[in-house]
Amino acid sequence: KLTYAKPNMVVLSQHVALDNHLSVIPTCKPVPVPVVDLTDPEAKTLIVKACEEFGFFKVVNHGVRPDLMTRLEQEAVGFFALPQSLKNQAGPPEPYGYGSKRIGPNGDVGWIEYILLNANPQLTSPKTSAIFRQTPQIFREAVEEYMKEVKKVTCKVLEMVTEGLGIEPRDTLSKMVRDEKSDSCLRMNHYPTAEEEVEKMVKVGFGEHTDPQIISVLRSNNTAGLQICMKDGSWVAVPPDHSSFFVNVGDALQVMTNGRFKSVKHRVLADTRRSRVSMIYFGGPPLSQKIAPLPCLVPKQEDWLYKEFTWSQYKSSAYKSKLGDYRLGLFEKQPLLTHRSNV
């Protein structure tokens, strides 16, 4: 096993303006996050309620071994501690691979470096292969085992959603993630501690956004920073919990429930004292999957709030947008007269 140095922040060969991620943001008070015990007989009801009210909830008794979560975190920290020249061989992301500060191709930046991996073992990319070449075999093994276990949690939660909403069959949503052509992915983010000259400023690690996929399942270390936006527009801090998962409703699920579930806007602020490491599994459908309000929930098409589209179309549209754009606006059947912004 390799011995890693202390994690350091990436240094880019080309200058990246980071002014827009250094700002004074009012502090947020923690809010009681809905907690769902997956072994609770009422879990499906609690999940539906949380998806309607918050678009976000915490999952406990999820069945994923703590040592597996810890091992992947340690291996991710090890990768981010590698010399910059080695990490650069796995980037820039296209969209998979290693990235730093730049988030996407449209000018968004953050106090972050990250790895994005396709969760489909049948699909590989040169950038992904480069990541595994720079790390011990245990890293690849930890990634594969972690994705397998978190995929089970993702599918279990989606099946509880269908049960709670009275949707038949039970696997209406989960089969999209289980499909062999599922477009799911795993993202590992590293938010370093502050540099001295900006220590007193608030650092936006990952700016305000929603997740495009069906749902996202997040696990992080015990460093604070995650915040979600409430319905009234206020931001609330999510207390960290390294032993639990946090689930976000994604844009695709908002469409399939015809707006009953809300894709939650969230962001991450970097901590000035401790680095933050998070691992997010994005449960996505196959590229050819049609996304539209589910007929069992909305029988009449004239009641649909959204046009039908394929996941490939939406993914392509989202990739061309800026991080904080309201991406679903392009797919609303009757866009609201008032400006709906996700920034």
Structural overview:
- Helix 1 packs across helix 5 and helix 2 crosses helix 5.
- The chain has an eight-stranded mixed sheet.
- It contains eight helices and 15 strands.
- Helix 1 links the parallel strand 2 and strand 3.
- 26% of the residues lie in helices and 22% in strands.
- The protein is globular, with a radius of gyration of 19 Å.
- The N terminus and C terminus are likely disordered.
- By secondary structure, the protein is an alpha+beta fold.
- Keywords: Iron, Metal-binding, Oxidoreductase.
- This is Fe2OG dioxygenase domain-containing protein.
- InterPro entries: DIOX_N, IPNS-like_FE2OG_OXY, IPNS-like_sf, Iron_ascorbate_oxido_reductase, Oxoglu/Fe-dep_dioxygenase_dom.
- Belongs to the iron/ascorbate-dependent oxidoreductase family.
Stretches where pLDDT falls below 50 for ≥5 residues?
1-27, 337-343
How many distinct beta strands?
15
Number of H- or I-type helical stretches: 8
Choose one word for the global shape.
globular
Radius of gyration: 19 Å
The helix fraction, in percent, is: 25-40%
Q: What gap, in angstroms, lies between the N and C termini?
A: 43 Å
Q: For the report, how would you describe the main beta sheet?
A: 8 strands, mixed
Strand order of the largest sheet: 2-3-11-8-13-6-5-4
Helix-strand sequence: EEHEHHEEHHHEEEEEEHEEEEH
Roughly what fraction of the amino acids lie in strands? 15-25%
Decide which structural class fits the backbone.
Answer: alpha+beta
Mean of residue pLDDT values: 87
Family: Belongs to the iron/ascorbate-dependent oxidoreductase family.
Keywords: Iron, Metal-binding, Oxidoreductase
Protein name: Fe2OG dioxygenase domain-containing protein
InterPro entries: DIOX_N, IPNS-like_FE2OG_OXY, IPNS-like_sf, Iron_ascorbate_oxido_reductase, Oxoglu/Fe-dep_dioxygenase_dom
